[in-house]
């Protein structure tokens, strides 16, 4: 005797939501017009300048400049990553992550480590080390302090944002 087969197909709401949300990638143009957005772009540009000024020298001969290089590249990559997250509004799609706390911790740690790196950079720049690299190291020291002040500003705005979230 022949058997009848019944096939039932269902559509997951997760799949429908995923395909709908991935097709419309949000872009926040206004973020770059805010003070934190401008500070972030400044951090990226000047942070790139810091590590390229050092990378163009024989920094690997001096451990102090290796530390500055590590901090500059590490936070440059993370700042670019966070800029993409804020520009694409990815933070709205992952509400489980406490983004205000993440931003505060990121900017606070960047400020502290960049301040240490800028001080190390400035104190390591002497004409006795290598006259050929002196100007690059001096310029990187100056820009490291400027980037540090940008991270200090973003830490302040992150704190204000975090504080307003915790009071609600």
TrEMBL record:
Identify the gene encoding this protein. Cmtm8
This chain's protein is named CKLF8 protein
Entry's localization field: Membrane
Question: Domain MARVEL: where?
Answer: 31-163
An example GO biological process term is: myelination
Q: Does the keyword Transmembrane helix apply?
A: yes
InterPro entries per UniProt? MAL (IPR013295), Marvel (IPR008253), MARVEL-CKLF_proteins (IPR050578)
Classify the protein's membrane topology as the record does: Multi-pass membrane protein
**Recorded GO CC terms:** membrane
The record's GO molecular-function terms, alphabetically, read: structural constituent of myelin sheath
Transmembrane feature ranges = 31-54, 60-85, 97-117, 137-159
Species for this entry: Pycnonotus jocosus
Q: Which UniProt keywords apply?
A: Membrane, Transmembrane, Transmembrane helix
């Amino acid at each position: 005797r022949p058997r009848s087969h019944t096939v039932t197909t269902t559509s997951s709401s997760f799949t429908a939501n995923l395909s709908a949300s991935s097709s419309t990638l949000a872009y926040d143009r206004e973020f770059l017009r805010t003070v934190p957005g401008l500070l972030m772009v400044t951090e990226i540009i000047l942070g790139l300048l810091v590590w390229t000024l050092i990378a163009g020298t024989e920094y690997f001969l001096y451990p102090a400049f290796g530390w500055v290089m590590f901090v500059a590249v590490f936070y440059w990559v993370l700042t670019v990553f966070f800029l993409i997250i804020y520009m694409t509004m990815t933070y709205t799609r992952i509400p489980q992550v406490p983004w205000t706390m993440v931003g505060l911790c990121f900017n606070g740690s960047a400020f502290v480590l960049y301040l240490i790196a800028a001080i190390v950079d400035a104190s390591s720049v002497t004409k006795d080390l290598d006259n050929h690299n002196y100007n690059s190291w001096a310029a990187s020291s100056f820009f490291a302090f400027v980037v540090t002040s940008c991270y200090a500003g973003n830490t302040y705005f992150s704190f204000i944002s975090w504080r307003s979230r915790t009071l609600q």
